[in-house]
Amino acid sequence: MVHVHFWGTRGSLPAPIDASAISAKIRRVLRTVRDDRIALGDDATIDAFVARLPLTEAGTFGGNTSCVQLAGGSNEWTVCDAGSGLRAFGDHVLAHHAEPQTYNLFLSHVHWDHIMGFPFFRPSYVPGNVIRIHGCHPDLRAAVARQHGAPSFPVEFDQLAATIEFVTLEPGRTYDIGGFTVTAMAQHHPGISYAYKFAIPGASVIYATDSEHAFHSAEDAAPFVAFFRDADLAIVDAMYSLGEARYAKQDWGHSSNVAAVELAQAANVRHLVLFHHDPANDDRAIDRLLFDARRFEEITRAGTGLAVSAAYDGLELVVPDV
Ligand SMILES: [Zn+2]
Ligand SMILES: [Zn+2]
Q1: Cα(210) to centroid(ligand 2), Å
Q2: Per-residue pLDDT at 215
Q3: How far is the CA of 237 from the centre of ligand 1 (A)?
Q4: Label partner for 179 (CA 20 to 30 A): which of 193, 199, 202, 286?
Q5: What are the 10-residue block averages of pLDDT along the chain, 322 residues in total?
Q6: 3 state DSSP class of 25
Q7: Predicted pLDDT of residue 112
């Protein structure tokens, strides 16, 4: 089985929730308690009530940019993208493991939202750690290193204490890395991005962010459908609504919630996770995109159907072996 932990799910720019949004949630919940005459006697009743509330009221999709951890291949760490969510992941590992660790980071591309967490990845400051940064772009090192040093950052890249290696992967080739069979595929995005497929016997996960799926013909779609074919879990860029993607933000390099569902359906994916949420969207706007995606899936369903979720910072999923 593969465990998937989402440390950052926002696109383009971190988007922390603000005070007015939190107070609006509290007011809505208190009105529900009042209007429905809910008796909140002891702490256990309150806990049960809060557990029933939707994420839009008792939580948030979160604000960190792309960072998704996969576990199941080996005792090496596997992480997709080094967005601002990488800071929390690194702190979590350091809090639980005193001995040196090996990290395999896979970069979809080197746009800033996908690498901005690296200067705050504390394992890179610890001698003995090995960090391998994998990607298909030839300029991985330059992109990561230039975030460090004057005038932008107090620590030069070459001062980092961990052993940091850059590994250029070739799309279409299959690699054995960190216990996973890994394959990359080029996607439509300014400067190109790459999707990754991670497989172990009986389970496969696709990480496919920053990709514009707006297929004009079956020929356009075919290579993507083949890459996604029968995946157990697919984490897919669904930044926009269909209207935004088609009319206002065409060629911006991102997909709609509807395009993500269409691709997952065509490829017989079991579970689709909407990802790379627009920083302009609040929790209720993201929840509407999820609602619409599920509704679209329902009315176009053929066969057993597709589970659709929206990623949030802190979401953990288990992909069982089939
Ligand atoms: Zn992005
Ligand atoms: Zn991008």
Answers
A1: 5
A2: 66
A3: 9
A4: 193
A5: 97 97 97 93 94 96 97 94 98 97 98 98 98 97 96 96 98 97 96 97 96 78 96 95 76 88 95 97 97 96 93 96 78
A6: helix
A7: 97
Ligand 2 centroid to 109 CA: how many Å?
Answer: 7
Which residues are registered as beta bridge partners of 194? 186
Cβ contacts of 169 within 8 Å, gap of 6 or more: 134, 135, 136, 175, 182, 184, 194
Ligand 2 midpoint to CA 176 (Å): 26
What is the Å distance from ligand 1's center to 32 Cα?
37
Closest to 125 (Cα-Cα) out of 91, 76, 168, 78: 91
This prediction's pTM: 0.96
Q: What phi, psi does 162 have (nearest 5°)?
A: -70, 160
Which residue from 141, 161, 2, 14 is spatially nearest to 78, judged by alpha carbons?
A: 2
CA 304 to centroid of ligand 2, rounded, Å: 33
Handedness of CA 24, 25, 26, 29 (dihedral sign): positive
**Cα 98 to middle of ligand 2, angstroms:** 34
Structure tokens at 36: 């429905």
CA of 111 to the centre of ligand 2 (A): 5
Task: Tell me which residue of 83, 33, 90, 31 sits closest to 62, measured CA to CA.
Answer: 83
**pLDDT score for 216:** 67
The per-residue pLDDT for 243 is 73
Q: Give distance in angstroms: CA of 13 to centre of ligand 1.
A: 8
